[in-house]
Amino acid sequence: MNTPQKIYTVAITGASGAIYGVRLTKELLKNHCKVHLLISEAGWQVFREELRLDTSNRSACLEQLFGEGNQEHLHTHSLRDFTAPIASGSYKNDGMIIIPCSMGTLSKIANGNSGNLLERTADVMLKEGRRLTIVPRETPLHQIHLENMTALSKAGAHIIPAMPGFYHLPASLDDLVNFVVGKVLDNLGVEHTLFTRWGEQQ
After folding, report:
1. Which of 39, 92, 132, 179 has the fewest CB within 10 Å, making it most exposed?
2. Are 39 and 81 in contact (CB under 8 A)?
3. Domain 7-162 in CATH 3.40.50.300
4. What span, in angstroms and rounded, lies between the C-alpha atoms of 99 and 103?
5. According to the annotation, is 104 in a ligand binding site?
6. What are the sequence ranges of the domains in the chain?
7. pTM for the complete prediction?
């Protein structure tokens, strides 16, 4: 009997660290998962600034990042498209990951303000009791940031800050990115070999 294909939503906002969302999407596709990808306007700006990508043709940009062969499993949506299947609780969705998550997006979700598809999908995950994983990327944090994270945690969200470990002796930027993405995959129960675990042979 075949195992049903896992379905995830990955959302990339305008917080620094777009590479985390890109790497996570690639790993999920590598594991034959179906991925619904959401990128905010500010997220596209970070693609230009941090990843040095030409985003004038967004379809070509995504093709460059994820390859033509993943079109069957990768589905992108405009944040204005409330007809997308992920906007409904009746659609099967094994988890949503907002990576990186800006404080603005986090605030709107924490306060039930569903002004676009990203925020609506996160609200659906919470109301349906499904896995919502948030990877905030901000420093320092003030009281409102912390209270919003607490509110989301109480509502059932998983908070995984973009805080790489160093016990695996990272030798490159890739190692640091892989650690954070690996922790997210662990949270989802998705197998990976992105970093050496504590107690494993270095």
Report:
1. 92
2. no
3. no
4. 12
5. yes
6. 7-162
7. 0.95
Q: Are β-strands 7-12 and 95-101 bridged in parallel, bridged antiparallel, or unpaired?
A: parallel
Q: What is the mean pLDDT of the chain?
A: 94
Please indicate if the annotation marks 40 as binding a ligand.
yes
Over the stretch 44-89, which tens digit does the pLDDT of each residue have? Answer: 999 999 999 999 999 999 999 998 666 689 999 999 999 999 999 9
Per-residue pLDDT tens over the stretch 140-166: 999 999 999 999 999 999 999 999 999
Annotation-wise, does 167 bind a ligand?
A: yes
Give residues with Cβ within 8 angstroms of 2, minimum separation 6.
Answer: none
Let me know: does 181 contact 20? Beta carbons within 8 Å.
yes
Is 91 assigned to a binding site?
Answer: no
Is 199 assigned a ligand-binding role in the annotation? no
Q: Is 105 labeled as ligand-binding?
A: yes
